[in-house]
Amino acid sequence: MPIPSKATQDFVPIKEVRDGVILLKDNSMRAILLASSLNFSLKSEDERKGILYQFQDFLNSLDFPVQIFIQSRRLDIRPYIALLENRYKEQTNDLMKIQTQEYIEFIRKFTESTNIMTKSFFVVVPYSPALIQGKGINPGGFFGKKDDESDVKKRMENFEENRTQVEQRLAIVEQGLVRCGVRAARLGTEEVVELFYKIFNPGETEKPIQIT
After folding, report:
1. N or C: which end of the chain has fewer CB within 10 A?
2. How far is the C-alpha of 97 from the C-alpha of 190, rounded, in Å?
3. Cβ density class 138-167: b for 16+ within 10 Å, e for less
4. What is the tens place of the pLDDT at every residue in 55-98?
5. Of the candidates 77, 53, 3, 2, which has an alpha carbon nearest to the alpha carbon of residue 181?
6. What is the pTM of this model?
C-alpha cells in the first residue's frame, strides 16, 4: 500500500511570518538578527581578550536563551560576471577591452576550480507567550470554525503585546552585540522568508542576504 506523501508544511514548525516575527505552531515566537563578523587575526592579544570578556558578560547578562546560527553558502559569482560583461561592452579602449575580457576569464576559471564560500551569522531570539487559561481563542479557524470580530481583534491585540516583548529582547541582544564590536540588523518579513527558502532549498545558487 503506497504511503501518502506529506506536504512540506507538515515538517516546518512555522505557522506564519508577520512583521518580521516568526509565529510557530506551538504559538511561540522568534525574531532573527543578522550579525557581522570579526576577524580575530587582525586584532591584538589585548583586543581579543577584551572582545571575549565582553561577549562572556553579554551572554551572562541574558535571562532568556538565544541561538547562534551560521549559514555557509557557495558564493554566486554570476551577478559579478554579468557586471563585468556589461563593462566590457561599454569599453571603447581596445586595451581595456582585452584586459577586461582576460579578467573575466580569470574569474570564471578561478571560481570553477575553487569553492568560494560566504558565511552569514544569525542570532535567533525566542519568546513564548503565557498560555491563556479559561476561554480560548480560535487559532485562525484551524478547526474549520469561523472567527468572529472579537476573536480576530483579541488575537491582534495579543500579537502586538507579545511583539513588544520580542522587540525588547531584540534591543537587549543588539546592544550586547554592539558592545562586542558586532553590528546587527533585524530581518524583516521578506528577509526571514528568503532565509528559510534558502535553508529548504540548499541546492540552489544564491547571494547572501542583504539588509537595506
Report:
1. N
2. 39
3. beeeeeeeeeeeebeebeeeebeebbeebb
4. 999 999 999 999 999 988 877 788 888 899 998 888 888 898 89
5. 53
6. 0.69
